Amino acid sequence: MKKIIKEFQPQTAGCRIESGLIITAGKKTMEKWASHFKNLLNKQNNPDGITINIQTTPDNNIDDDELTIDEVQNALKRLRNN
Description:
This protein starts with 14 loop residues before the first strand and ends with a helix. The radius of gyration is 27 Å and the shape is flat. The chain has a domain at about 10-45. It is built from two helices and two strands; from the N terminus they run ββαα. By secondary structure, it is mostly helical. It has helices at about 25-40, 70-80; strands at about 15, 20-25. Strands 1-2 form a two-stranded antiparallel sheet.
C-alpha cells in the first residue's frame, strides 16, 4: 500500500529562461510568460513569404433554401449512427 501512496511532494510552477535556468519566483515567472506571449503574438505577419489567398466572394454552392423537416430528420439519423 505504501507504494501506491507516496509522500506529499509540493509542486512548483516554474519557467525556463533563455539561459536554461528555471525561475520559480511568482512575479518573475509571470513577467517571463508575459514577455513570451508578447513576442509570440507580435511577430511580423507572413515571415516565410507564404501567400494565403482568402476567398472574399460568397460560395455559390451553398443552398440558401430553408431546411425541411425531412432534411433535419435525416441529419439526426446520421448523427445517431455515428
